[in-house]
Amino acid sequence: MTNLQVIDVTCEYRKNPLGIDVKQPRISWRIQSDTRGTMQIAYRYQVALTEDGFEQPLWDTDYTKSDQSIHIVYNGPELASGTRYYYRVKVWDNFGRESEWSDVSWWETALFEESEWKAEWITPNPAELDPLTKPIFLLRKQFGLKENIASARVYATGVGLYELYVNGERVGDELLAPGWTSYSKRIQYQTYDVTAQLCGNANVIGVMLADGWYKGDLTWEDKRHLYGDKRAVLLQMHVRYTDGTEEVVVTDTTWKAATGPILYSELYHGETYDARLEKDGWSNADFNDADWQSTVISQLSIGKLVAQENSPTRVTETIHPVSVFVTPAGDTVLDMGQNMVGRIRMTVNAPEGTKIVLRHAEVLDKEGNIYFGNLRSAKQTVEYITQGEGVETYAPRFTFQGFRYVKVEGYPGQEGGLSLEHFVGEVIHSDMEPIGEFECSDPMVNQLQRNIVWGQRGNFVDVPTDCPQRDERLGWTGDAQVFIRTALFNYQGGQFFTKWLRDLEADQLPNGGVPFVVPNVINGDSSAAWGDAAVICPWTVYLCYGDTRLLEEQYGSMKAWVEYIRAQGDNEYAWNTGFHFGDWLGLDSKEDSYFGATPNELVATAYYAYSTQLLRDAARVLGKTEDAAMYGELLEKIKQYFADEFLTPLGRLAVSTQTAHVLALMFDLVDGKRRERVAHDLNELVLENDYHLTTGFVGTPYLCFALSNNGYHETAVKLLLQDTYPSWLYSVTKGATTIWEHWDGIKPDGSFWSDDMNSYNHYAYGAIGDWMYRVIAGLDMDETVPAYKRIRIQPRIGGGELTHVRAAHDSMYGKITSAWNITHEEITVEVEIPANTTAEILLPNADLQDVKEGSAVLTALEGIASLQETEAGVSFVIGSGSYRFVYPNKRGLNPVFSRDTKVIDLLAVEKTATVLEAHFPGISNPHGVLASLRTQSLQKLIEHPMSHSTEDKLDAVLKELNALEWELETVEK
C-alpha cells in the first residue's frame, strides 16, 4: 500500500450523514503521508448507487487537476429523495504518487420537496384531551407490514419536542429534537433508520411530545405559546421491500393519544415524573389502547421543512459526583465537581409513592449553602415519584439544567448519607466534534482553557445561548459574534453555525435590522455589536472552514445589515442614533449601570466600519466586484468620519476608555503615528489601572490582541496572568469551572453580584481563548487563503511567566500543532503541518546560523523556502510534516518560572523584611547580605512558585532593596 492515503472523508461536515436535503452536497477529505512537503496535485471522485457499483459509477470526475480537498461540490446527475449514495476518493501528489481509493463512504438524501410529504400534522383531539394540559402526550399508531423488509426510514418532526419509539424501543439517541429554529419560517425534521426494529406483522410507532421551545415558558417575561398553543407531530415512514415495492405510514387521524407519567416538563423549570402512571408497553403491538383518545389534523402555521442541519443534541459525557455534604442550612447536596449542563440520572429502590426532589444550582454562598438566587424564576427542579417495584432508573427527557450542585430531598436513607454511585451527571450539548487543544506551564491558565471549553459545551445547546441555568437561555447575537472564533477553534462548528445563521437571516427584519436574540422571542433589535453578528459570523465560518457556499448564502443578509446602518440618522458615514448595548457590563460604567463609559456613537461607528470592511472582503471573495468597490469607498468615508469625530488634532483619542482604544486599533480606524499614539495610550490606561482591565463585552475580546499587535505584548500577558479582580483568572481563584458573566460574580468577600443577572456559565469573556491560541501559541492562518490552507506559526515567546505553551487544531486539512518551550539556555519550537498545506514560520529572537531542525542546521533543511533573518527572528516557509526547531536563548528572553497558588512560601519575603526593618545597624557586610537575600528570594520564586499577590510583595521588597543599595552606595561615596 502506498504511504499516501485519503482519510477522514466527510460530506457537508459529517461522516456518512443520514437524511440531508442538499441537492449538490460537498465532500472533503484529508491526506495522510509520511513524506514531508506533500501537496495534492489532482483528485478523482466517484459516486455510485451501491457500495460495489463503482465499475459503472453514477458520476466520475476522472483525473481532476486541483489542490482543493475541501468542499468539493457534487456536479453529477440530479439526486433523488430518500436515496443512499456511495462515494470514494483518490489523489495524486507532487511526488508522483497515486493513492489507493479511500474507504467507501455515503450520504443519504431525505425529502427534497414539501410535496413529497404525505403525512399530516396531528394533535390530540381537543374535545377529549385539553391541548393546554401540562402532562406530555403519548401518541401511537399500530400497523402491519409484509415480510422481507429491505429498508425503512422515518422522517419526523414535532412542535415542541419529541422522542420516537418503534416496537417498544427508543429510536436514536438525539435529545430535544427537532431543535429550536424560527418555527414560523423554518422547522427541522430528522431521519431515522428503523429497519432493524420492524417486523413483518404487527408494528407500533410511538411518539412522546412535550412543550419545549415551541409553546413552553420562554424568556424572563413569563411568556408561553410564543409560536403556537398546540403540540403536534408530523411523521412519515417509508418501508421498502426486497421486491422493490414501497409502503408509507404517515401521521393521520388513525393515530391515538393519551398522557403518561411525565406530568410536567419545562426547559427552565424541570420535570415531574410519576412512575406509577407508566403505561408499560405503550409502544408495543400487544398494548391495549382502547381507552386512548382520538387525534385530529392540526392546521399549523409552520415554516419550511428542512432536514437536520445542526449537530444533534446528545449526552456526550457522563461524570460522577465527587462528594456529598450537608450544608449549614441542613440540606443534603451533591457536588459534581464541575459546573455542567445536562441532567442527573438517578437509581433508586424505594416503596411506592416515594417522592424524590432534585434542585440544581451553580454555586454555594459564603456560608456554604446552596445558592438559587441567580436562577430568577427558573425552578431547575426535577421530581420523581417511585413505582415501588424494585430498582428504578430515571433521567428527565425534555429539559436540561445548568448546575454543579444538586440539593437532594426525599431520597430514602439520605439521613445516613447518600451513596454517590446512585447518581450520575449526563452532559448534554450539540454533539460537535472537539478539534482544539491548548495547554501551558501555568496551571491556572490551563484551568481557564478548561472553563472556556466547558462554557462552550454548556451554552451550545442547539443554539448559542447566553446562559444555561436561569430563565433566559437565548441566542444573543452579540455573545455569539465575540466568541465565534474561539468556538470554531475548539469545536467543529460548521453545522452549528450554518443552522443558526439561517435562522438569523429568517428573523432579520425587512429593513435589514437584526434582532437581539435568534431565534427572535423578545422585543428589541439592531444594536451595534449585536446585529453585526450577521456579518462577523458568516465571515468567520468562511475563514475557519473555507465555506464559500455559506458566505454566498448569507451575503444578502450581510449586505442588508450594513445598508440598515447606512440608512440610520442623517449622516450615512456615522451611526449615532437608536438604542445600543454599547460596551455592555464595562467596569468603567456609572454606579448601578450595565452600560460602559465608552460612548455608544463610538462603538456603533467602529462596528459599522468593521462590518463594512468584512462585507467588502466577502464581496471580493465571491467575485462581486462592483460591491467590493462600493463598500471599499464607504469604508474609507466611515473611517474619515471616525477620525474627524473621535481623534484630536494631535492624534489622541478623545475618549479615554480602554474599549475606545481597543476598537480603534482592532478595526484599523487609525494608522501611522496616530496608531502608535493610540496604542501607547491604551497601554498607559492598562498600567494606570495596575494591569487590570475595565472593558466589557465589546472591548474585552480584542483587548489583548490590540496590545500584542501594537508592541505591548508583555502588558497583554500580564493581563492574562492577573488573578485579582477584575481578571480572567480571578474567577479561577474562586473555584470557577466555567466562564462567568460578571468579573465579580462572586466578590472577594464571598458575596454575590446582584441576583438579577449573574450567570456562572456565560461564554462571552472566554473569547480570550482566541488570543491565547493565535498569539501566545502562535497558531494562525494567512486569511487570504482560508481554512488553514496557508498556516502561520508565529509564537510569542517570553513576555511573561509562561515557559511552555502548546496548541493544536484539527483543521479541515488535518492536525496543526504549535508548541514552544523556553529555558535560560535554549528555545524549542515544535510544529505539525498537515498534508496539502504550507506554513509560514517565524522563530522569534533566533539567529539563522544557530537554528537546528533535528540534527541539521536550518539552512540545510530540504523543502524550505523564503528563508530570511529579520529583527524579529528567522522566517521561512515549509510544507507538511512534523518539525522540531532548537536554538540558543541568547537575545535576552528571560523566562520567569510559573507560579502555583497551592504553594506560597513567604520565607524569602520574611527574611528580606527583617533586613528592611533593621536597615543597616549590626550588619558588617550589608552589600553581601542584600545580594545574598536577593539571590535567595529569586531562588525561592523558582523552587516554590508563588501566587501573584505574593510575587507582588516580593517585587516591592526587591525594589526597596535596590533603593537601599543605592542609598548605601551614596553614603559610602
From TrEMBL:
Domain called Alpha-L-rhamnosidase concanavalin-like: residue spans: 328-429
Keywords, comma-separated and alphabetical: Hydrolase
One Pfam family, short name: Ig_Rha78A_N
Annotated transmembrane regions: none
Documented EC number(s): 3.2.1.40
A molecular function (GO) term: hydrolase activity
Ranges for domain Alpha-L-rhamnosidase C-terminal: 783-854
Superkingdom of origin: Bacteria
Catalytic function, reaction form: Hydrolysis of terminal non-reducing alpha-L-rhamnose residues in alpha-L-rhamnosides
Key word Hydrolase present: yes
Location of the Alpha-L-rhamnosidase six-hairpin glycosidase domain: 435-776
Signal peptide: none
Domain Bacterial alpha-L-rhamnosidase N-terminal: 148-317
Classification via PANTHER family: ALPHA-RHAMNOSIDASE (EUROFUNG), ALPHA-RHAMNOSIDASE (EUROFUNG)-RELATED
Protein name in the entry: alpha-L-rhamnosidase
